[in-house]
Amino acid sequence: MDLQFWKDKNVLITGYEGFLGSHLTKTLLKTKAKIVGLDIKTFRRETILTKIDYQKFIVYKGSVTNFKLLKEILEKHSINIIFHLAAEAIVESGYRNPKKAFETNIKGTWQVLEVARKKGKLEAIIIASSDKAYGEHKKLPYKEVMPLIANHPYDVSKSCADLIASTYHHTYHLPVVIIRCGNIYGPGDFNFSRIIPDTIRAGLLDKTLLIRSNGKFIRDYIFIDDVVEGYILLAEKIKKLSLYGEAFNFSDEKPVSVLNLVKKIYSLLGKKPKYKILNQAKYEISRQYLDSSKAKKILGWKPKYSLEEGLDITIQWYKSYFENERYK
Fold first, then answer.
1. Range of 146's domain?
2. How far apart are CA 165 and CA 133, in angstroms?
3. What share of the chain is helix, strand, coil (3-state, %, to 5)?
4. Confidence of residue 325 (pLDDT cuts 50, 70, 90)
5. What is the dihedral of CA 137, 141, 142, 146, to 10 degrees?
6. How far apart are CA 165 and CA 197, in angstroms?
């Protein structure tokens, strides 16, 4: 991280209370940037952000669909850089409530970009996307040049947000860059519908893990610190390397099946696997993983943590989390 770059920067992080947002916020608090956080839920009990952290940045409670609030934030704080992370982040939730997924992921994105367009003079707008934006392709891994051909609610919401972001660059010359990641994991993920925290919780609490899919789905998994580094690198290099309008994949490029991942976690826990396959996953793509060669070549980025290393750090964090009487 280039500390000099961040000195006196005014940074807005939407969705700062989420898994990725909280880690990015915590990292940028180590700089001399002025951080403004926007989230629909604020000061959550379950977060890696501490009371001391909260004293170091400005918090707004509200939705990214609130144009008036976004305008107020950008103007009042002379925002230079936006990390737009606020989103409906769970595939199953998008299936159950497509209206919410479309409003948050699509409308929220164009509201942020429209406010940015009217304000002008921003240095970078980093849009958090997902591998789901690509939809289902027969040829893998996904590369940034592939078309976005999603079919189902959550996936379509990400494809649309990406296309809207691209439109605001090509038509209005906004300094937009899009990031697509595989499955992010690490300490502080409190959404236990995700396979890694759910498996760790089941193992530590000696409960039977319920696997929604058939266990054969193939995914890539990337440690949170590697993702945060990628976001920060892009913000620092977007102007220098003229990366406006580009999309970048971040992945460890080592896809694994759900069942093999589960077995690996139990092995690291030193426990015998205890799970039940439900085979109830609906409208999910069976094989998804990314090519990160563009990020490696242009940004000089590469993951520092292997899956085993990242999982070990994550497991140790959850051990401490569940040993705390407050969470028993």
1. 3-184+223-252+287-304
2. 13
3. 45, 15, 40
4. low
5. -70
6. 31
C-alpha pair distances (Å), 162 with each of 120, 167, 181: 20, 9, 13
Q: Is residue 274 part of a domain?
A: no
Q: What is the mean pLDDT of residues 170-186?
A: 97
Mark whether 275 is an active-site residue: no
**How many C-alpha atoms does 145 have within 13 Å on its Cβ side?**
3
Position 201 in a domain: no
Query: How is residue 262 written in tokens?
Result: 């589960």
Whether omega for the bond prior to residue 141 falls within 30 degrees of 0, making it cis, is yes
Does some domain include residue 206? Answer: no
Number of domains in the chain: 1
Helices 307-323, 258-269: inter-axial angle, 10-degree rounding: 60
**pLDDT tens-digit map of 212-242:** 999 999 999 999 999 999 999 999 999 999 9
3-state SS, residue 15: coil
Catalytic residue among 134, 142, 154, 185: 154
CATH number, domain with residue 55:
3.40.50.720
Q: Evaluate whether residue 324 is within a structural domain.
A: no
